Amino acid sequence: MPARSYTDKQKEVFYETYDRGASVRKAAAAAGVSPDRGYRWVSEAGLSARRFTPRQYSQEEKEKFFERLADVGDVSAVARELGFVRITCYKWAHQRGIFTSKYADDKRQEFLRLRGGGKTRKQAAALVGADPHSALDWDKGIRPFYGGRIYPDGRIALYSPSEVVAKVVSPRVRYIQGERIDLVRVERVIHARFVSLAERERIRDLRKSGATMRGIAIILGRAPSTISRELSRNAAPVGGYMPHAAHRASVQRRTRPKTVKLVANTRLRDYVHDGLKKK
Fold it and tell me: How far apart are CA 279 and CA 270, in angstroms?
């Protein structure tokens, strides 16, 4: 049976609904796609979401999986054959240091070769077609898999319930797409110089209609550099510019206290000190 295809409009509806804090399943239903497709799109966008309470397996079932894996060599095929959850089977394999995805590892090895040759992370990622999240993990020696991460020292970190989309922590704090967000800070308007959520939604709509950055700047009464910086800093690798995610990211960057530049940079501090002495 040929794979079902989805339209760009469905993908757009999914990301917009998910960006507003809906669960993956609700966003998938709104877009008219399967939950599996929704989880795949979330993974492609570098976001994290917990699918469901894991099925419990016996030690005998686990050993049976590894016996078949030794014969077949394909995690997905063995999972289908035994009726096990594919993601769980990949987790078991990764925990034993078994990685069957040659393509992903080839990209990683090429990325590391380019980094060793002097390329920046951004340049190497662009050359191998990797997203910024994967590039950062590769630089740190982290192997991500659907449901967790494996660190260079062998430690395995599974995604925790705190990373469930829009889990309520308190009346004013939520976990949204893996981020702990103070809703009061998100909704507070500090100064007109900061781009507001309404403006970010307008930027998204104008960009979709084909408006240029300079045209958007004129309509919003902003400098073109402000629009350019907003789109370059806050656009997702997959899914493009999502106004609600962009607004949360900007609020996170404003978190205080931060290390003062004159404390972190001794050369700059000495330069300023000498300049002040000379008046």
Answer: 14
